[in-house]
Amino acid sequence: MKVNPAYNTREKLLELYNKPLLELVFEAATVHRQYHNPREVQMSSLLSIKTGGCPEDCGYCPQAARYHTDVEAHKLMTVESVVEQAQNAKANGSSRLCMGAAWREVRDNRDFDSVVEMVQAVNDLDMEVCCTLGMLNEDQALRLKKAGLFAYNHNLDSSRDFYKDIISTREYDDRLNTIENARKAGITVCSGGIIGMGEAVEDRIGLLLSYMEMETPPDSIPINALVAVEGTPLEDQKPVEQWEMIRMVATTRIAFPQSVVRLSAGRTKMNMEGQALCFMAGAGSIFAGDKLLTTPNPEFNEDKAMFEILGLVPKEAFADGEKPVSEPDPIIEARKEKDRLRAIQLEEAKAKGFEPRKITVQ
Ligand code: SF4
Prior knowledge:
Elements: H1 10-17, H2 21-35, E1 40-50, H3 79-91, E2 96-101, H4 110-124, E3 128-132, H5 138-147, E4 151-153, H6 160-166, H7 172-184, E5 188-190, E6 193-195, H8 201-212, E7 220-225, H9 242-255, E8 260-263, H10 272-280, E9 283-287, E10 291-292, E11 295-296, H11 300-310, E12 313-314, H12 330-352
Parallel strand pairs: 1-2, 1-9, 1-12, 2-3, 3-4, 4-5, 6-7, 7-8, 8-9
Antiparallel strand pairs: 10-11
């Protein structure tokens, strides 16, 4: 049951969300146990592969170039350094690596070629690979799928109505299109929202309704609490109470029984008891590692201690779907061949005493 028919209207979802908290958690825990192993929680790592300088205006985001925050812009990481970070994350128990680039959209250029190589390389490490790269067309989605991409993250953030108060540089429908493109390519969809941006409870319900209206709801639904960063338009937002996170996680769990509900940003403001209630209510994943793109997150060691106390175990990679096969990418293969020929020509030229920079490849 991908969508719970008992809660498929705004009114029913709102009633569910507002239930006495412990009743809600109990119902969510019951649903969770029907579809998931409650002891397993996936540890995922989120790596910012290209930081800052983004042309978009998402009001919560310190990576938007127009806001004056402490985030330093960095160009795309190398494939080698991504692999190193992935190995480290895997050694610390992560079974999924999510690579985030602060782009408006994917462009068909060298940087995208590098991301394709990163996907291949991390998939080869037997980790689930997820990317969040902004808007994506069907061809790009297919290219990533063939490289071995397991999931694509593209959040709707909030309800269609409230979205306009937070982002003006792209439409809600643009986001839905990208999600659709990932879905068509056979990539699993990770899409969720942020609470604590000044939205009403009705907007949180509106977000869930947007997912209910999809032909297939997201395979993963991350629930984030806003991390208010100085210099962004939302810098003065009060932190959300952890009870609100628990409510949102539980409601999402009940509404989408088969999806993985991900307890994502904002965990540093929660104590272990609050997180425990989220796991009880169906959160099946956390982000591990001391950074969530650019904002703080609990250290690997803190989470290991929490897992031990709560009797949780890290979920293995590909427990919810087969490992994708990485196929050779024609663009990368052609480039490698060109590089190979160039190296040969350079050697030949050197042997003849020519200057290397005068050589061109036909
Ligand atoms: S959330 Fe993504 S798209 Fe929006 S400003 Fe930040 S990096 Fe850019």
